[in-house]
Amino acid sequence: MLYRSEVDGLRAIAVLPVILFHAGLFGFSGGYAGVDIFFVISGYLITRIILDELNAGTFTIRNFYERRARRILPALFSMLTVTTLIAVVVMPSELFKSYANSGLTVISFISNFHFYSVSDYFSTAAEQKPLLHTWSLAVEEQYYVLFPLLALYAFRKGKSLSAIVIALTLASLLLSQYMAFKGDSAANFYLISSRAWELLFGSIISIYKFDQISYTRPVRQIASLTGLTMVIASFFCFDADTPFPSFYTLLPVIGASLIIIFADRQTLAGKLLSLKPIVAVGLISYSLYLWHQPLFAFLRMKSSGEPSEALFILAVLLTFVLAFLSYRYVETPFRRSPKFKNKDMIQVAKRWIGIAILGFGFILATDGMQFRFSTEYDATIEHNPKRKQCHTKGKDYLRPEESCHYFNDNVTWATFGDSHTVELAYALAKKLEPHKQGNRHLSFSGCQPALNYNVKRGGCHNWTNETLAYLEQEQSIKNVIVGYRYTGFLSKPDINNWLREPFRKETHEEVWEMYWQSLDEIISRLLKAGKMVYVVYPIPELPDHIATILTPNYLFVDDYTYDKDKTTTVDAYMKRHAFILEKLDSLPFGDNLKAIKPLEAICSEEYCPTVRDGQALYFDDDHLSLTGAGIVLDHAQLKID
Predict the structure, then answer these.
(1) Which of 348, 372, 396 is a domain's end point?
(2) DSSP type of residue 594
(3) Range of the domain at 588
(4) Cα–Cα distance, 470 to 462 (Å, whole number)
(5) Do 293 and 420 sit in the same domain of this protein?
């Protein structure tokens, strides 16, 4: 296969916006679309290699996987090694365990499934995950496993590979469009089922040899420039609110395809992409992609607030240094040096994977290597021990009548809401136990009061309606505590806004009002059913994971450390929750409707602490610990008969 410098140039155009997007620099709001360009390039190149070898009679699955391992794994494992060594120094135990779990999925080539289950790609928390970016590598690796088998099957059985690929492309594209607007947008973003069409676009170019057709010079000029314009436009036209992937993604995908098909060294687009500095960036693009996210994640992790642009610029420069070293001393030797070229890469990969499993397993077995740090507060960072069992989610959620109840079959109380009620449920049950009363735990992960509208969290709408109907009919339950993480849906600055996403045509204010009307109706119906209702006001949120706040920083000993007694300001709380506070204050509180106000229970006039009397009040950045939940309930002075 002839070398095409413009394809390496296209790699550079793809990787730079991704890096700048993750750094928040220079307005690349859609820089993440660079990943989609990489998918097209990979599909094009891999399909060309496979078809050429099939036609020559030299293709074997083992040789193909060996070459892919030689290309991908050395730099990947180098990054994992260095990243893990840094994580040993800077990551608190809870985050280190999470890191180890993600590391195991990286070496298993399923990290896209892992991050789908734990992360919103555009959320603040996701930005501090050093291995988040490996989701796209996992998608490509899954393609590398599946597509060669498909091509070999079609070749041997005399089937039409082009027909199969076109059918799969259309199916995947339509699925992505449906999932972006009607289904699970996180699954749509991370999983190969709705990403395959982007890789298959590249495959179609190779199958039909569109890049080898003799086009007139004007056609090549116009088409390649159009493609370059489309690619660049996608970096600025899209943002975190754009449904992706979907038909919108056709802009960078078709743009990249036009460049691959029509650009050559004689076209203006081809000349630009073949400039030596651009090609040089393209050559190290894989290492650039590998190194940027760990650097940015650690920078954010060890900074108070969002790091400055100057720090990010320095981090970008360091990324280039590490990428060059990785390309020069890791990638190139393993691909070209006789010393490494004769090694059986599959056997080497097995040993590397085995060592990685032992390393990550040790981290998990030692509870995140907890022995590294002071354990003064560790034992108090407690969550509901029944959280995994009783906190439901998804379309196969626990029905209300199947949900957990705690400590006594005389169930007279219920907690109803999202994850912010989970610890309240258990702490409440502890208080009820001496009174020989029980509590029904009714919580749905990432849900909201979605009574009269649907949302992206599958099952939330139905669960809300079923649970409310259950509470109305269950006469034994006399008291209901209702609470949500309101700012997960009602905070305009947050791009991680689970309520806004399904309602893109409405303004924030319209959607907020719909949210409130639904919550208000839930409260009203519970009151009409004769329940004593307690409404939980917003829980003060921490600026970082509590383990990070309470863990000494051994890498940058002079760096900012949080004051555990003044972690969050009351002023910031009031501004962040302004909308929902105003609405909650308008409720007709009286004998049967009471407020539970975590702010008053936890905070002083100016600040909210992280610990009290040596006890942690949270178990992450926004969920109360059992201690914190108990303090909030004590302050509420519940009427327990």
Answers:
(1) 372
(2) E
(3) 379-636
(4) 12
(5) no
